Structures are given as structure tokens and as C-alpha cells.
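WARN no homologs supplied; continuing
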Amino acid sequence: MVRSDDNTVVSEEAARTGDGETALLAVYDGAVPHVYGYLLSRCGRAELAEDLTAETLLAAVDAARRDDPPPLSVAWFVGVARHKLADHWRRQAREDRGLVALEGGGSSQDDPWDVHLDALRARATLERLSPLYRAVLTLRYVDDLSVPDVAALIDRSVHAAEGLLVRARAAFRRAYGAQGDSDG
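OK structure emitted
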């Protein structure tokens, strides 16, 4: 056995031959809990995390069957999972776009917000936001990606992503405040 860069044990045969399917089998058991945990912590719903984990693993099987498979590792699996989650939010945003348009635009609020956020309340608030708002806020503030990286993942220009983040933060503040008003 050979230890890869991320401490995943890969068989010597897979490491020597570069056989994608053998490498996939060697990394699979260690990767599944990481992928599922990553997805669950970001989407908050077990059934969605399970579906996205399955999509991630199917993508890994496709990649392993290529003539020149990528070097498979737990980190690679989590990277694929990140893309699957972003794809899911994009698909859901497209489906919800018509409903959002019917609701009309929101009012803009000032950006400064010096409130200590309660993690459980913040997660519940995120779940109530549109999928696109949830995606950009999670990518920017949970995954700590730069605005240009967020823009690339959601297939928008940097200016469009900045505007979307402003609207998403405003929507989050409104929903967070409304949730607090209904709690107490």
C-alpha cells in the first residue's frame, strides 16, 4: 500500500499503473463520509446531501473510466461535491426564478450590520432564502471564497456576483430579523 498526499491509502498497483477504477475503489470508502459531511453541513438536509453524494460518486466513476483519469483523492472528491452542490443550487434557482420574479424586487438596506449571529438561527434563515442567495452567501462566507471565485462558480460576471451578494445579504438580514420577531 502507498499513502497519497492526503493520507488516503492507495494500492501499489493503482499507484503504479494509474488505473482509475482501482484508484477509485481504494479511495471510495474514505471519501464517502467526507463528501457526505461536507454536503450536509452546507445544505442542512440529509436527503439532499445523500442525493448529491450519489451524484458526486457517479461523476467519480465517470472520471475513473476515462483514458487519462485524474489523481483520485478525498480532496478531489470534495472538490467534485462542491461543484455538484453549486450545480444543484443553480438548477433550483432556475426553477424558482419565475416565482421570485412574481414576488417583485426587495428594498435595499444599508450594509453595516453589527449583530452577533446565532448559528442555528442563521442556518434556518439560510434555508428560507432562495437557492441562489443561499449559494452565494454560503460560497462567500462559509467556504470563504473570493467574489471572483463565487462569480465563476455561479457563471456570472464579478459585478453581477457583487450585486447578487448585496441583495442576498439584504434578504438574509430581513429574514433573520423576521425570524427573531416571530421567536420572541
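The two ends are 58 Å apart (CA to CA).
OK
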